């Protein structure tokens, strides 16, 4: 917060880029859901999680659960690393969070190729990147 308020360089507007999908994590007790950004959206302030996948991901975005995720994503089924990223983002009043396995449709090769090509921009445009050294 101090950085954005007191450092002119940190407050410079940049070209608008929003990832295709973000998690809307809302406030402390709000439901978490998938948000599909629109071209008309202003630059959204979001955090991005950089993490090592490790073993199998118990919870990931698939074509068959995409509509359900737009309504609600069960937090209790998320790995601790994801829950920690949600907690940090909420503590910093950042409403949106990008996590690759929940923001890219994992079983859609076209979506995966398109979104993977934008990952550099996803991280460089994020307000905050959270790096998890281990899961």
TrEMBL record:
It holds the Pfam family HET. It comes from the Eukaryota. Residues 46-134 form the Heterokaryon incompatibility domain. This is Heterokaryon incompatibility domain-containing protein. InterPro entries: HET. PANTHER family: DOMAIN PROTEIN, PUTATIVE-RELATED (PTHR33112), HETEROKARYON INCOMPATIBILITY DOMAIN-CONTAINING PROTEIN (PTHR33112:SF16).
